[in-house]
């Protein structure tokens, strides 16, 4: 195997953790992982948080982040063992043979230096090129990656360019010294979906044109399917399945892989029954105090009992602001909100106890949505006490009923949030909302902080509860797969306006307006070749115009 | 539960100092201002364990009574500083608006003058008595507690669980006492130790400058001042109270450190 | 106008406003409180006539606002008034003493600032190893010990037992620089010790904060040496926080000076202030308080100006 660039055999990685109040412990975070990567190929590493995928990726540079130690196995790069390398041998490979693209380019660039200085730094340091050559190469890379004004782009400071541009600049920085291997560590995860597709396409093209090999790390199987030759599925630091991309996507062998592949395929037939709507947002316009532009512009939507309205949009579209307007945290400047047959006061302070009770909210980050000093029993019990005056044994019994409904069962009532997993925390928040017997629950990105399988579980639970209790959901999300899984009707928001609104089937079928088209076509699909199709289609369209 | 050695040492000395302060009249071999010997700055002996001071009083007895004064003033000033600072800080954070603006700007102004300097300015026109000292020190120092309490409460106030409580319709009382206070307690408790140390140093410095506790009443800073002249003759009487101040401060610091580490690691704590 | 200039102008204006408000606070602090200057000068046995005469002479019968503005305009023209106890011109007296105080503080700063930054870097370099632990131990001890305690321990062991240095730091204009430096050796040593630990610990925290940034990891993954990483990537981002630390501690030094001057009977501002507080000489106390506060506010202002000037976001707006 003369072409093997990177070979990892039986890798073991350990870290020391410092549980508060206890002695430090060594834990194994990667165990017995082996892989091989040929020159010019791309290997995708995929797994949930804690799977050890970033740690394995960085081991190809013989680097352990924050006290992580590479304690066993061999890492061979270009035939050399590098796990035990130290000092100048390490520095010679880092930034020269292997380079790195971080998830958050915004933090990974030095804020005090111009981009060009940072992009060509490795080329000069390792003596790969002269300054003039390196700058020329950087400009060429800027152009290839689709950055604006490639000639002068490097003269800017990191804070002067957008997040998507920084991510591309970091790719240019990694490719500039012409390395053998680039490690991409979730390079598009922090980006909006319409930006992600451009960056993804740029990265793929750059990999193809330069012939560099890559380790592509992500939690999104649909993304990795677009750029990889091989895929390794990881869970808790161990290999679950490893093989060519076709095998993993189309013929997965392991249950866990099958679950990951089918994760976005939940379908939900839309309800079509007609009824008096429970919520009507009537021409609502709103702005934050002290600002001079409207964050919501003339928004009108309505929602029937037991139905789900998905509000879709990217960051800054105003979708979370809509929730704040409905809950009364941000009183609208124009328009009205009708709820359960009455008109709500614009401000929270003037609403009745029933208004508050019947309109509940669930948040994105369950961690900070629960008081860490209260037990699960107190968290779920408080609305029972506050709205229905339940006390003592009656309250405790009802809390347990609610815990049963969210499929958590016995033994959780006296626990603190810190003792629960991410999915369990979100379930407790759902139970707290249900405790109030609401007519409407606003769900603000409730699944986006969760791993895909856990998120699926939460969505199924929400659908079951809707079936049983006829509660309506206003479901705010940026993820269209989630929308397909849960919505009956959809409102697409862009820059504070609703640009498309109606039943799910009609919103998701052509003819589209430009933004919805862009948004829908940008969502990665779980099939090989999707990215090429979309890019080709878009090129054709823009040529046709 | 295992207590680290450093905290154990800290606890031991803190307890020793406080107990000595409380039971001073029963422990001290002689009276506070009782002249017991013709020799001034007599070396230590079986009769006078730490020797005598600049006027021939028993130094050990003065140290014991002095500790009582210093600890009493520091404790009282800390309590005043804490109640004022944390009540106003929480209020500013929860109410916000002009209340917050007025309080915060006034605190900014007070903190733009070093507190020792401001204390000296005020003491130049006030009668120097123990209550005046406590009030001046406590109020000047409450600015720091205010800033901490406000910052902690502002951080907690923007948490989603507080928003959830507001959306539920909870009143201000529930939000302050059930949502914010339990989460603000551990940083405040740790700060309390530091404020106490600061008060010990503050009152000792004032007394040392002759502007704190007035003779014949004893306190540690004053004892250093009284016996300082002996230093140049090689007489170390002033070093005993000096070391007492340092020991008390370091001990409390060790305890405060430990309390901070422990409370943050409790079940359901932030670190948990 | 560029945002930097605008921000600087705002910050300096704010500093001046603060100084103005502080002058009011100091003035109000000395008149509203229940003491009576005339009474304190003449003592409890003074006759009512004598008190009334003195009050009139001092202008104490004017409304407070009038007195404040008279005082403020005097201050702005360099007239700090006359001392009640000695009848001497305060500005003249402060002039010489301020020089002495600055001389002392200057040398303490010259020694402690580079030393603290060097030791702070050392602590970062050997993080969690013994040099770092030693530094945190010393810091704990140092924040728990008042300045005068360090001073007397040093006098006792160095000046008295070892017979090195002098315990009374008298200086005057006729002394040579060498003699002066010998005279202030011990007070400078004490001041250095007092601020060193604080400054070290804060420098350590500031540099660690920078070193934990993601862009330092980026630099490490570029294969740069530690020295180059610090020089190119850590240093430009550490200037503002370190200057901030230094200024904060110099401000702290200003307060430490007051106590140290008393211990060493040093003819500076601090000694002058403390003397006149006991004598209840309000005009002197007001003047000294204002000057100390001005220095304090000025140092904080310098820290803010530096952090504005070194912020790339402000220097290169979008």
Structural notes for this entry:
The complex is a heterotrimer of chains A (about 550), B (about 270) and C (about 325). With about 550 residues, chain A is of the alpha/beta class. Chain A has 2 domains: about 5-265, P-loop containing nucleotide triphosphate hydrolases (Rossmann fold, 3-Layer(aba) Sandwich), CATH 3.40.50.300; about 280-510, P-loop containing nucleotide triphosphate hydrolases (Rossmann fold). Chain A contains 22 helices and 20 strands. Chain B contains 10 helices and no strands. Chain C contains 14 helices and no strands. The two termini of chain C are about 15 Å apart. The mean pLDDT of chain C is about 85. The chains are: A alpha/beta (about 550), B mainly alpha (about 270), C mainly alpha (about 325). At the B-C interface, helix 4, helix 5, helix 8 and helix 10 of B face helix 1, helix 6, helix 7, helix 11 and helix 12 of C.
Main sheet overview of chain C? none
In percent terms, what proportion of residues of chain A is strand?
Answer: 15-25%
* CATH hierarchy, class of the domain at 90-281 in chain C: Mainly Alpha
Number of domains of chain A: 2
Which descriptor suits the 3D outline of chain A? Answer: globular
Most extensive interface, residues per chain? B-C, 43 and 53 residues
CATH topology type of the largest domain in chain A: Rossmann fold
List the defining traits of the structure above:
heterotrimer, A: alpha/beta, Rossmann fold, 2 domains, six-stranded mixed sheet, C: 318 residues, MetI-like fold
In short:
The complex is a heterotrimer of chains A (545), B (272) and C (318). With 272 residues, chain B is mainly α.
Topology record:
The complex is a heterotrimer of chains A (545), B (272) and C (318).
Chain A: E1 4-17, E2 25-38, E3 42-46, H1 53-59, E4 68-77, E5 80-81, H2 87-93, E6 98-101, H3 105-108, H4 115-125, H5 131-144, H6 150-153, H7 163-175, E7 181-185, H8 193-210, E8 213-218, H9 221-227, E9 230-235, E10 238-244, H10 245-250, H11 255-261, E11 279-286, E12 296-303, E13 308-312, H12 319-327, E14 334-339, E15 342-343, H13 353-358, E16 359-362, H14 366-369, H15 376-388, H16 392-405, H17 422-435, E17 440-444, H18 452-469, E18 472-477, H19 480-486, E19 489-494, E20 497-503, H20 504-507, H21 514-522, H22 530-544
Parallel strand pairs in A: 3-8, 3-9, 6-7, 7-8, 13-18, 13-19, 16-17, 17-18
Antiparallel strand pairs in A: 1-2, 1-4, 4-5, 9-10, 11-12, 11-14, 14-15, 19-20
Chain B: H1 5-22, H2 24-27, H3 59-95, H4 97-111, H5 115-123, H6 130-157, H7 160-168, H8 172-208, H9 220-227, H10 239-265
Chain C: H1 3-31, H2 37-42, H3 48-58, H4 64-76, H5 90-125, H6 130-143, H7 147-161, H8 177-183, H9 185-211, H10 214-221, H11 226-263, H12 269-278, H13 282-309, H14 312-315
Helix pairs in contact in C: 1-13, 5-6, 5-9, 5-11, 6-9, 7-9, 7-11, 9-11, 10-11, 11-12, 11-13, 12-13
